[in-house]
Amino acid sequence: MLKPEMSSRGTSPSLIGRAAETTALSAAMDAVRQGRPAALLVGGEAGIGKTRLITDFFARQEARTLIGPCAEMGPDGLPFGPFTAILRDLVREAGADTVLSMLPGGGTGMELTRLLPELASEARGPAEARAAATRPAEEARARLFEEFMTLLERLAADTDRPVAVVIEDAHWADRSSRDLLSFLIRYQRSLRGVAIIVTFRSDELHRTHPLRPLLAELDRVDWVDRLELPRLSRREAGELTAAILGGESPDDLTDSIYARAEGNPLFTEELLACAADSDLPWSLTDLLLRAVRGLPEPTQDLLRTASAGFRVVGPELLAAVTGKDPGGLAAGLRPAVTSNVLEVCATGYAFRHELIREAVYEDLLPGEPARIHRRYAEAISENPSLAPPGRADIVEAHHWHEARDATWALTSAHRAARQAECSSAHAERLMLLARVLDLWDQVPDAAGRIGADRVRVLEDAVGAARDAGEDRKGLGFATAALAELDEAEEPARAAILLGARARFKEQLVLPDMADDQDRALRLVPESVSPRVRADLLIDFACNDAWEHPQMERAVRAALESARDSGNPRAEARALAALGFRHSQGQQAALDSEPLKLISRARSVAEDAGAYEPLMKTAIYESHLLCGAGDYPSAAASARRGIRDAARYGVSRTWGSFLAINEAEPLFELGQWDEALDVIGRALDLAPVPRTRAALITLSGVIAAARGDTGTAAEMASASRAVMSGMPFDDQFHVPHGQLDVSLARAVEGPSAATALARERLNGFDLTVCSPRYLWPFLVTAADAAAAEGDRDARALLVRVGKRAEKLDAFGPLQEAWRLTFAALTEPGESPVAAWDAAAAGWEALRQPWTEAGALVRAARAALPGRQEAAARLRRAASIAELLGARPLSEEISALARRAGVSLAGDADAAGDGKPLGLTGREMEVLRLVADGQSNRRIAGELFIAPGTASVHVSNILAKRGVATRAEAAARAHALRLFG
User: Fold this and answer.
1) Could you tell me the pTM of the whole model?
2) Last residue of a domain, one of 185, 203, 228
3) Residue 576: closest CA among 631, 538, 625
């Protein structure tokens, strides 16, 4: 692989991820500005980005930052090293006289001057120096601590900016520095305006490390919060890779880097500095092996053998390979565990980081790797129980491959692929089948050895690629199989491959998908193979871009055939296809015939353990329920499908698509933070382009609704790049067009939005647009045109009005959109009544954002009736503030000011009794605060990090305008928020 083009710095120009950690730092600084103490203990492994986080954060803060790095000099290093560095920087910045003037008595005889010779020479005469020298050690130490605290206090008092004391790499801090740090944090109530941030490498904290007891003590201090910087997710690692490269990075490069760096930012940067598949750079190798090289030689020998194993090596297997007895093996590895090179888990030993294993492995002498791998393979072949349950064939195949034995590598890989299929390890199965194909020409009579020809292996690889979400690889395998297959002799086999290739092309947004579908059906006339033909038709049944005149008959024939032959998988697929096709043109209620068919399909699929139809039923059911406006049921159905996808190992494909169907109803219900969580988890799986585009579009909609137009524009651009090459699909293109128009109005005004709405409308294939997606777009376009009001806008209003007249409105959801459109374009004699009807429709659907928008319009129409407008505006204001919809809140406030309406009538409670401004998660945290729970207890109750709980508590205090947790709890009890 060629070295990628990189930025000259080799680092990301922006901080990636770390939103929660940045929020925690902001909360700490806000607390300090309000006169409360705040300290953060920030841990993380080497290279995780602690320094980058602190540097980036304080570069954007109005704060005086004092940084004291700890040097690696051992526990008996330079006393007070980080505090001496802070003092030296202060003297360099302000001068010795200024620093001394902040000390009691102008610095004369002060113990603090011991730390810097230049301070001592300015402050003391011979008499003062002699007096200081004769002081008892404990008294001198106490005075020094008090003097440093006084210095910080006066620094904070002399400026209108808070002071941040940052102690970096505290795992290297000497005893004196740890004691002074503990003193400052414990007495931080006296340090008004001073925040204390401590960073440390958590991977350096072995069991006897002297920092561990200090961290445990400080953890119990009320105003101290502890953050552990996690490794980047796959999505964040992709963003980091793209930022470093200066453009979008290919998925295979991102996957390769992520597999090796495991989300460590420094490791990612180092790997990108060389070819992604090359040996480790020496600078990184030295960092990774530093702890290894300090271990006893026998321990290093064991680590070298362990490095040839998988991520986790069982003790019995390692003992068999090394020839050690269990006791000797444990004794030999103990130093590696103590030093955090190895971790002990339930099934054996694992290197703390994959790159440590890789660095140790690369340190093996020539010929050693093949010999060690052969010992592993022979040990597992002789005793499969040495491998993890259900993985003996997979592990053995890996070691034969690394031992460079082509025959054993091919046969074991083919056997392991079957084992991987049984355990739903789809990506592993794909890798093993690809290995079989790579080795095919190196092994005489390969087909005879495994009992399958090359085309059969390619067909298996096609199925594995589909399940693993590797559409491009699947396309290649299907094309290769078709090239080797004689269509005339085996038309059914060729047709199935063409159908599979069509699905890959659909996912990859390639234009000739329909050609493969038509060719597949021509190859298999009904008279030759009705069952294969029916299966193909079922595959294409729910593809809106392709209709077949005999679809209904073919699917019903497939259903009858499946029941007659006892094929539950095919039966479930046919039932699901029928249910979905019957739902077209109507809205599905829970007791509707389409959903009954889909429910029966799910039951059959569950009993048969057939995951593909099970996933389809989850998609169909959640899609139909969302379209009917039954958002809680839709989200629950999608969530159940996501759990099933994880159980069957198809989270990246089916699971990430179902995330769209969970996030959409959560958005409509006003649970925007929860929707973003779902979207984030799905994007971390690196889904296929179409799925990624839909998820990004929805996150852009939420950003725009909250007034974050910069993020919304980025999201819109990213999804547009994917969809620009896609054939038109209303469920993807129309919502994206709606986002574009909304964003144009927010940034450039109604005129730009009107022009863009016209452009997007021209690009839509209106003959296939579902009312479900077209109604919201028409409302958005009409809203922009009505606000603009010029001739072009009026022409657009006429056009969308004519389109709306032809558009059906099925069920309560589309009826609410129709009412909203009518209120915008033809309100009749009573605009207030028209908007109230729309608002009532949205309220019945529990869709708060659109309800609030309708209430604002009703209030505007009710003016100059102040009393009528006030009630509507207050309700809308409550909703907008709960959602964090800043643009809508600003519109409401502006309208209220013009109308002379006070929004304070419901200042303490929204229409549903919840405090204004608090998200759903913050309400949960407030409930536990009101119960007297600590941050740690809250974190345990809600399954979040203690630092995250602290951030939520700080946000609650700020939003409610109270200074303490007790005040927040008392206010909640007074309002009877929780009964």
Assistant:
1) 0.73
2) 228
3) 538
